[in-house]
Amino acid sequence: MIRFEMFRVHLTSKQNGLFTQADRLRVYADQLQQLSDSDTLGPTGWKLGNLEVIESDNYYFKLGRPLRAKKLEALDGNRFIDVEFPQAPYTHGIFDAQQSVLAIAVNSKVAKTSQIANGFCSLIRGSDILDDLGGKISVSPIIDATELLDRISSAYQISQIRFEFSLPNPLDHNIDIEGPLHRVLKASKTTSGEISLTDPSVDKDIASEIVRSATAQGHEVSVRMKTGRKERSRLFKGGDRQLFALYSESSAVLKTATESMLEVIHKAYRRIRDGSSYP
Prior knowledge:
The chain has 279 residues and is α+β, with helices and mostly antiparallel strands. The chain folds into two domains: 2-141 and 243-274, no CATH class; 146-237, no CATH class. It has seven helices and 13 strands. The strands form three sheets. Strands 1, 2, 3, 6, 7, 8 and 13 form a seven-stranded antiparallel β-sheet that branches. Helix 4 packs antiparallel against helix 6 (204-216) and helix 6 packs antiparallel against helix 7. The chain is globular.
C-alpha cells in the first residue's frame, strides 16, 4: 500500500498575479519534459525522471536526490533504476496540471513529503518560460476538512467564517463567492487576502462551500459556531490532517499502475472539494 499526500501548487505572475491556464500548462509541460530528459541534477540535488504522460496534462514521475542514495546506483543515464518501494531512493509523484494538484508518495528514505513537494517546486522554478513570464511558484498542503464539515452540518448556529483567498485555480474557484474577491485582488495588484464574514446565522451550505474551496486551494479557514442551543460559541479551524490517497497494487488489474494512481488521487481530491467522486 502506497500513501500519497496531496498539495496545491500555486503558480502566479510577479507582475499582475495571474497566469492564463495556457501559460501554466505550457510551463509545466516544457519543464517537466526537460527535467526528465536531463542527465544533470537540480541546484539542490533533486532529480525528476521517468516522466509519463498518463492522459492530457496529467503526469507521473519519479523524484529523488540520487547523491543521497546509499549503496545503490540510483540512475541509469537520466532514468531512475526501478527498486522495490519503499526501499527505493526515489518516490512516486502524480501531478494534475489542470487542477494544480500534486500528490507525493510517502517515502521517508527520500525526505518528508513537504520537503519533496518543495523540491518539485525548486525544479519547476528553473523553467526558462516561467522566468520569461516573470512567474513564481509555491506549494501548500491540501487539508482534509471532513471533521469541520461534519461540525458545520450538525451545528446549531454559525456566526462567523474567516478564510484566506488568492487568485484562483480557474477550474476550482466558486464564481459567486470568490469571483468578486478575486476581482478586488486583481484591481489592487495583490495576489492574496483574508476575509471574515459575520452574521447571527451564516448559511450552512455557504459555509461548507467556503471551507471546501479554501482547504482545496491550500488556504486556512476557521468557523465560529454553536453546537447546541445552550452551548457557547466556539472557534473551529480547518484542521491539520493532510489530504491523502491510498494506492494498492491490486487496484491496477484493469488499468496501468500510473492510471490507477491517478484515479485514486482524483477520487480523494473530488471527495473533499465537492463531496463527489471523480470525474
